Amino acid sequence: MIVTIVGAGAMARGVATIALAGGHTVRLIDRTPRKAAGLADELREAAPDGEITASDAIGVEDADLVVLAVPWPAGREAVAEYGTALAGSVVVDISNPVDFSTFDSLAVPPGTSAAEQIAADAAPGTPVVKAFNTTFATTLLAGRVDGKPLDVLIAGDDEDGKGAVADLAAAGGLRPLDVGPLRRARELEGFQFLHMAAQERLGLGWSSAVKILP
């Protein structure tokens, strides 16, 4: 698959690392092109056989997955900007819409989610999938916590889109879990907010993971 990642921060690095481990082609886009180019160079050093390029906005065209590895609400702005260029791609929202001014609530109203708002702003027919928001960047790089593969909880209304994201996760050594329709993103975002808020209190150091055990 061609996996285009919008953003060049820590989560972009984590998702790109998983994609490259699965043998996928990675394109990186950032509003600051030198950041995308710098991350691409670093990823090539870590995965010299991987297909990695830094691109401009045209990099979203013909991509199988377009991963919005940007903080809320930048993903919403991105789908509005790219518009019909996203046709044929599955958009993956990984954001957690936390109100960082207080770190005490989510920045989206009750009864909705960042993923649903992104879907509402995307061009008609563009499937949006929620995934990777319950994983931290450092754990994505390792792919495992306490010797166990990370769970990637996936929500969406498009079965093929969810399947493509599940393939990305599985090929990279993670365990994909389909948790239902896109509205389940509300619970995923709320749960990850709790996970984030507990880091300091529990002394977890952003190295913990959400794991579902049978």
Automatic annotation (TrEMBL):
Gene3D superfamilies: NAD(P)-binding Rossmann-like Domain (3.40.50.720). Keywords: Oxidoreductase. Transmembrane segments: none annotated. It comes from the Bacteria. InterPro entries: NAD(P)-bd_dom_sf, P5C_Rdtase_cat_N, STEAP_metalloreductase. Residues 3-97 form the Pyrroline-5-carboxylate reductase catalytic N-terminal domain. PANTHER family: DUDULIN-RELATED (PTHR14239), REDUCTASE (PTHR14239:SF10). This is NAD(P)-binding domain-containing protein. It comes from Streptomyces johnsoniae.
